[in-house]
């Protein structure tokens, strides 16, 4: 207290980095960290339960929409874990390169599975051919982003996948709201679920 300290940090990354610069008292830090861990654990638990439940539905009914939803839930959960640093802390400690690679491929994978789910759940192929064409283009773009993430430098790959996330998110939201306005009951659930996921 009332003293002066000097802290030197060296940070090296090929892409974006989050570096909190807060000094904490030890007890306050652990209290805050515990609260954040509880919130994250609830989120991961809900995503995991949804994935398991939909996997059971898939094995019961053999409808591809349930399988695609499992993939969406798992990919989204792993993406958020990577974003929060949980994959590095709990799943891949001492593996920064593998963790970085996992994070690179999870963004396009999440987007790809989301487009697959929307296409199957709302039966775009048979019921809404124009929307289906748009989602086919988005699927190809997500697949290309996935392949590019394997060969491009980190900073280029992240820019491509993040810029792809915007049209995918907007397309899913507009699709759900548009079909909901046309009295599609499945679209109502889809739109509410998508808005909740975005929130």
Features:
mainly alpha, 79% helix, 199 residues, 8 helices
Approximate strand percentage:
under 5%
**How far is it from the N-terminal to the C-terminal residue, by CA?**
41 Å
Low-confidence stretches: none
What structural category arises from helix and sheet content?
A: mainly alpha
Instruction: Count all strands and give the number.
Output: 0
Number of helices: 8
- The portion of residues assigned to helices is over 70%
- SSE pattern: HHHHHHHH
The value of Rg in angstroms is 20 Å
Give a quick account of the main beta sheet: strands, pairing sense, barrel closure.
none
Shape: globular
Average pLDDT works out at 90
Written overview of the protein:
By secondary structure, this protein is mostly helical. The protein contains 8 helices and no strands. Helix 2 packs antiparallel against helix 4 (96-121) and helix 4 (96-121) packs antiparallel against helix 6 (129-151). The longest helix is centred in the N-terminal third of the chain and has 36 residues, at 26-61. The N and C termini lie far apart (41 Å). The mean pLDDT is 90.
Q: What's a quick, concise take on this entry?
A:
By secondary structure, the protein is mainly alpha-helical. The protein has eight helices and no strands.
Q: What is the topology?
A:
Layout (H helix, E strand, L loop, with lengths): L25 H36 L2 H21 L1 H6 L4 H26 L2 H4 L1 H23 L2 H28 L3 H14 L1
Helix pairs in contact: 1-2, 2-4, 4-6, 4-7, 6-7, 7-8
């Amino acid at each position: 207290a009332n003293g002066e300290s000097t802290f030197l940090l060296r940070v090296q990354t090929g892409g974006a980095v989050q570096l909190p610069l807060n000094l904490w008292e030890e007890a306050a830090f652990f209290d805050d960290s515990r609260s954040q861990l509880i919130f994250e654990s609830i989120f991961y638990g809900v995503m995991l339960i949804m994935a398991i439940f939909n996997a059971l539905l898939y094995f019961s009914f053999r409808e591809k929409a349930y399988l695609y939803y499992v993939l969406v839930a798992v990919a989204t959960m792993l993406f958020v874990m990577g974003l929060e640093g949980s994959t590095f802390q709990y799943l891949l400690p001492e593996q920064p390169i593998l963790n970085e690679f996992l994070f690179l491929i999870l963004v396009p994978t999440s987007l790809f599975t989301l487009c697959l789910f929307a296409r199957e759940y709302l039966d775009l192929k048979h019921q809404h051919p124009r929307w289906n064409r748009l989602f086919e283009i988005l699927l190809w773009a997500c697949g290309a982003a996935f392949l590019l993430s394997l060969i491009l430098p980190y900073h280029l790959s992240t820019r491509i996948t993040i810029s792809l996330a915007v049209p995918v998110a907007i397309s899913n939201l507009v699709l759900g709201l548009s079909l909901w306005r046309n009295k599609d009951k499945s679209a109502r659930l889809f739109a509410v679920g998508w808005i909740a996921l975005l929130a």
